[in-house]
Amino acid sequence: MAQPDRYLLGYSTSERQRLQQQAEELAEASAWLFDQVGLRPGSRVVELGCGPQGCLELLSKRVGTTGTVIGVEVNDESVAMARGFLTDHQITNVQVRQGDARFTGLPREAFDLATARLVLINVPEPETIVAEMAALVRPGGVVALHEADWVTPVCDPPLQAWNRLQQVYASYARATQIDSFIGRRVPRMLREAGLVEVDARPLIHIYGPGHPRRYIFLQLVENLRERILAAGIMPERELVGCIDAVKRHLDDPNTTFISHLHIQGWGRKP
């Protein structure tokens, strides 16, 4: 049975489509991470919060026919989409199970790698997920995370509507017990979960005109629109006006957009 919706961005059709698009956009960075941690053919891997696609294809290719991948996802429609993706791409070494990333029910110390991408920044009590990941990997196994930190998203020239939407997004995150700056905590969370040899890599981008992630912040706000309005954080007329103003600003090729910070962190279980 599906768990209550605690995911910041919800499970609308547009959000699932965004996640599918994101899987392609972040594939190169995720591939680097999996190569860095030494993922090899024959490995057993679990991806928590895989959504409708996640990193399942990347992981499948690296573990090969002798390895296995399990994806865990709480939302039933996302599970169905992920299973459909696997069928369409004839990927046979991956299973997707519906379940809570905090309490997967999977066997302890059974995996060589446990990974999650942009999950902790969207859920309360993220420490429980990291603890579950640490419990799932065998001694010598690795936990690898890819998370975001909202310290850096800016545009130039400055725009008041942009600043206002940033405030609204932050207010909604706080109201739902979400840490928008969790990226910086990743190395510490790995150490607190008992992992050693912890390392981290920062990623930041300038998304120019035509880049699909240039409008990522607007996509997130649009997906939260009904929730923001229901929470009374911003009047609808002001919200629509700010969204329109920011879109025009990003449409201008003279506007520079700097992404939020991404942190990839990994550590080994002793």
What does this structure look like?
- The chain is 40% helix and 21% strand.
- By secondary structure, the chain is α/β, with parallel strands linked by helices.
- It has a single domain (13-268), classed as Vaccinia Virus protein VP39 (Rossmann fold, 3-Layer(aba) Sandwich), CATH 3.40.50.
- The protein is globular and about 55 Å long.
- The mean pLDDT is 92.
Counted beta strands: 9
Strand proportion: 15-25%
| Unreliable segments of 5+ consecutive residues | none
**Helix percentage range:** 40-55%
Category by helix and strand content: alpha/beta
SSE sequence, one letter per element = HHEHEHEEHEEHHEHHEE
**In CATH terms, what is the architecture?**
3-Layer(aba) Sandwich
Summarize the structure.
The chain is an alpha/beta fold and 270 residues long.
Which characteristics define this entry?
single chain; 270 residues; alpha/beta; Rossmann fold; 7-stranded mixed sheet; two-stranded antiparallel ribbon; 21% strand
Strand and helix layout:
Elements: H1 13-25, H2 27-36, E1 44-48, H3 56-63, E2 68-73, H4 76-88, E3 94-98, E4 111-117, H5 126-136, E5 137-149, E6 154-156, H6 160-175, H7 186-192, E7 196-203, H8 216-230, H9 236-251, E8 256-258, E9 261-268
Parallel strand pairs: 1-2, 1-4, 2-3, 4-5
Antiparallel strand pairs: 5-9, 6-8, 7-9
Helix pairs in contact: 6-9, 8-9
